[in-house]
Amino acid sequence: MFELDKVFKAVYFWLEGLFTRWGIPQFWLDLLSMLLVFVVIIAFISVAVLFLVWWERKVAAHMQVRFGPMRTGWHGWRQTVIDAIKLIQKEDIVPLKVDRAVFVIAPIVVFVSALLVYVCIPFGRGLIVRDLNIGILYILAITTFTVVGLLMAGWGSNNKWSLLGGLRSAAQIVSYEVPLTLSVLGVVLLVGSLSMVEIVKSQAHFWDWYIVRQPIGFLVYLTAAIAEVNRTPFDIPEAEQELVAGYNTEYSGMKFAMFFFAEFTNLFTISAVATTLFLGGWHGPWLPSWIWFFIKTFGIILVIMWFKWTYPRVRVDQLMDFAWKFLLPLGFLNLMLTALFA
Amino acid sequence: MSDYPKNSLNLPFITTEKVGTEEFILNMGPQHPSTHGVCRLILKMDGEVIVDLVPIVGYLHRALEKIAENRTYLQFIPYTDRIDYVSAMLCNHGLCMAVEKLAEIEVPQRAEYIRVIMDELNRIASHLVWLGTFALDLGAITPFLYCFREREMILDLIEMTCGQRMTFNYMRVGGVSRDLPGEFIPKAREFVKYFKPRVDEYEAILTQNPIFLGRTKGVGILDQKTAIDYSVTGPNLRATGLKWYLRKEEPYSVYDKFEFDIPTGTKSDTWDRYMVRIQEMRQANRIVEQALESIPEGDIKAKTKAVFKPPKGEAYTRVESTRGEMGFYVVSEGDTMPYRLKLRTASFSNLAVLPEMVRGWKIADLVVIFASLDVIMPDVDR
Amino acid sequence: MPVKDKKRMTKEEILKAFQDKFPGKIGEIPFVGVDAAFKVDKGLILEVCRFAKETQELSFDLLACMTCIDYADHMEVVYNLFSFNQRHKIVIKTSISRDGELDSMTLVWKAANWHEREIAELFGLTFKNHPDPRPILLPEDWDEGFPMRKDWEGKDFVRLPKK
Prior knowledge:
The complex is a heterotrimer of chains A (about 350), B (about 375) and C (about 160). Helix content of chain A is about 70%, strand content about 0%. Chain A has about 350 residues and is mainly α. Chain A has one domain. Chain B has a 3-stranded antiparallel sheet. In chain B, strands 6-7-8 form a 3-stranded antiparallel sheet. At the B-C interface, helix 3, helix 8, strand 6, strand 7 and strand 8 of B face strand 3 of C.
């Protein structure tokens, strides 16, 4: 089978041989390999996001009894590429009265926090950038950075609508962090370790998958994760119909593209984490490990997209009620049951 | 930052005065994705809660009443289409009825049946637009596409008859302008059969959905006394519990020959207004079905003089339009052009009651309440 | 709630009810499409409307329409009233001079609020005690007269030739 980790190892050893022959110190080898890994991750995310945007449009279209993009390439696959090129070459409008530094840095903060998570995502057997022994904790911590970015976007736009959007999204993300963490804690209790690779390794058999052993945890995780990435039914911060575009209102061109990019990157992240925690990571018969990982991740993404195009939106205070009065007790219940019976 | 009082070290820090909140004015401008049409709402907000609301209308004022004084009745019929372009047939019908009453013209039976079929089809089409945009305002994007799929079929039927999809110019004083083509009745029967389970499909997505119920139940209550005081009519009034159907109480045209129910609400919240309109779609479908069964042969237009001059007098008639009562007040001095034509539109009064309904609710609720009133701006401004 | 079995009041009964309360001031006029129509003096209009709304047997709770018609030397304000209880409709008219002043009916029906704003800005009448006299349909900076008057000549207003 086509094992990708062997490819990466082979490249690394070849580079090592090259560097020792030329007498360059080890430090430069490490730097170069980190740079290469970074490039690979960025390339992967770009391709994944481009694919996801196209896929979302197609899924939405077919649910709405229409076709979606059909003309640019076979079934419109080139559509996102063209849209990205269009966004890059647009004029970078910075309105006159904004808080300039905050306004410009906000999309960067959101984008970087979306990217940093990929250090710890296990794409397959041996395909993880760094297997930190606090893996899942690191992921949960980094995803919280998005709040800072959204608040900066809302404040820096000097626009009441954006401010409302920014405040709402901050409240939402912070509230849903708690049930998210509780659902993850249930899995961590059973595994005994925070490392992502350990979590996957402990789900070797189908009946070991944590979706079977922690069904409540899975549901709480899924709901909280959808709220974390601001997707319908929890997409109030970007509710077009109410706030024009929420914190996005004043952004155009490349800055807007960064927010958009970050949203889809986050979508992939939470699906990948759901796969790792609950669906057995890369385990599966016959096919290479990374193909199983992608199948499972895209399955979860499909379910999340299905929710987006079916349900109406909840109101802000109902959102908060739901998080604090329903998901949180449910998360505690799950934790308690896990601690008692497992 | 420069406004904050500095301490002795000249370090800026948050003032020690009492941190308070104040109300602010928010402008939901003429261009906004969810004001249905060009309507400006000035909101006085306390955080997210609306303290007061002032609607500013008039962006679509085209002075139709002034124009009417300078056009013959036949020339004014296309203008009536543009009062409420989503349900244009009903506006046509209203004007023709007013003039016929004044001139005491008797409309042939076939023309009346055709008018009823067109009216009810238009009512279904208008409610489909309303349902699609209502769900869209709530965030459920898919029902919009489903509703427009059905609306395409209705517009095809109407296009087959009068050539137009939106501003029909179909009815004339004394009848209608063109007869139904041969394939209209079989196609219409097909549509009626196809449409019955569609309403169930829309309900399946929305009506029992807990998110939808949470957003609409108990939101935006309009009590009956306020509604009558503000001259609210139509589904909004029926949702308050008043069983009032112009088509049953004062049947005009041939509505007394058909059997249909009057959907009313009980608690007069947004959910009731939604349910009333869903049921109205079903009842309109029923009426079309019955009309198609019993349509007689005959003339489609009564004979009127080429240069039509109704006698001197005044008349006021009203039609049950999709948004409420649409009244046409015609003052004629015996001339080809009306001396004064007043259009009493339903949305004008419906919009006036909006401030009463939103005090104390949040912006998200404002969007939902506004959508549930089914106000269309050209109707308000004329 | 509507009283279905009760016979609707006839035109004579309605007019008699008004004439009993306001003797000598009610002048009947012909009108197609309503149960009764009459004219009153502009000084009495507020009381007549109040009486129409508050009397049990008349109970005109819906102000269906409120208009103004410009005749060359005077204007007529028309009120179309309807009753949900009794199911009858009437029309009340008053005559008023151009640029005249009339009592506001917002005390009786809140619907009159917007209707009176429209009439005030399009015809030039004033309504006493109106809670919110702002222009409604015309722009705030409109200064070209009262468009609905018969003698109004706007810059771009072209009259079609009468046939």
